[in-house]
Q: What sequence folds into this?
C-alpha cells in the first residue's frame, strides 16, 4: 500500500464476485440465476466485500479468502474455517482464512465498484475492527450453520467485523443492481452476541 500517510479510518470495497477468475464468476452467475428463479426476481450482480483499515502503523487488509499455503502468518491470518462441510476442513483446499494483513493488498482492487466507501474516520473504531477479528466465528463457509437465513461467507466476515466494532452498518449495501449474499448473516450473529 506504499508508505504515504493515510488518515485513520475504515474503507469498504465492493468487488464483483469472481473478479480475475472465470471459474468463480461462472459459478456465481449460475448460483444467482437459480436463486433469482426460485425467488421470482431478476438476477443481480454479486459482490464480495473487503476492508482497508487505516491506523497509525499502516493499513490492514481485512478479507476472507481461500487458504493458499501454510504461511498464513505472513498474510495476517487470524482465523480459519471449513468450506462446504465441517469434515472437509481437514484438507487445505476446503479451508478459508480470515486476514488482517498489515501492508497487504486486495486482489483485483482495480475492478472494485463504487469503492472505496469511507465508513468511519475514527482511529479507535478502526482499531476495534482489527481487534474484533480475534473473536470472529468460523462456521462452515457456504452453509447456514448458525441459522441466520443466509449462508456464511466473505460478506458475513466483513459485516460481522464492522458491526462488532461499532461501525454504523444500517446504510451499507452493495452497488445498485447488486447483491451481497451473506451480509445479513454477519450482522445477525454480531447482534445475537450483543456486540
A:
Amino acid at each position: 500500500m506504499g508508505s504515504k500517510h493515510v488518515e485513520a479510518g475504515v474503507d469498504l470495497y465492493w468487488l464483483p464476485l469472481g473478479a480475475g477468475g472465470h471459474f468463480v464468476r461462472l459459478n456465481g452467475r449460475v448460483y444467482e440465476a437459480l436463486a433469482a428463479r426460485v425467488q421470482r426476481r431478476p438476477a443481480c450482480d454479486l459482490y464480495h466485500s473487503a476492508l482497508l483499515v487505516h491506523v497509525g502503523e499502516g493499513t490492514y487488509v481485512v478479507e476472507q479468502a481461500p487458504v493458499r499455503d501454510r504461511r498464513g502468518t505472513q498474510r495476517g491470518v487470524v482465523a480459519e474455517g471449513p468450506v462446504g462441510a465441517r469434515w472437509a476442513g481437514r484438507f487445505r483446499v476446503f479451508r478459508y482464512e480470515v486476514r488482517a494483513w498489515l501492508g497487504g493488498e486486495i486482489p483485483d482492487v482495480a475492478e472494485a465498484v463504487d469503492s472505496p466507501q469511507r465508513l468511519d474516520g475514527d482511529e479507535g473504531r478502526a482499531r476495534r475492527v482489527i481487534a474484533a477479528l480475534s473473536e470472529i466465528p468460523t462456521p462452515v463457509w457456504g452453509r447456514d450453520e448458525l441459522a441466520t437465513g443466509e449462508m456464511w461467507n466473505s460478506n458475513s466476515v466483513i459485516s460481522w467485523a464492522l458491526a462488532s466494532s461499532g461501525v454504523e452498518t444500517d446504510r451499507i449495501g452493495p452497488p445498485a443492481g447488486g447483491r451481497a449474499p451473506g451480509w445479513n448473516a454477519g450482522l445477525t450473529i454480531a447482534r445475537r452476541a450483543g456486540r
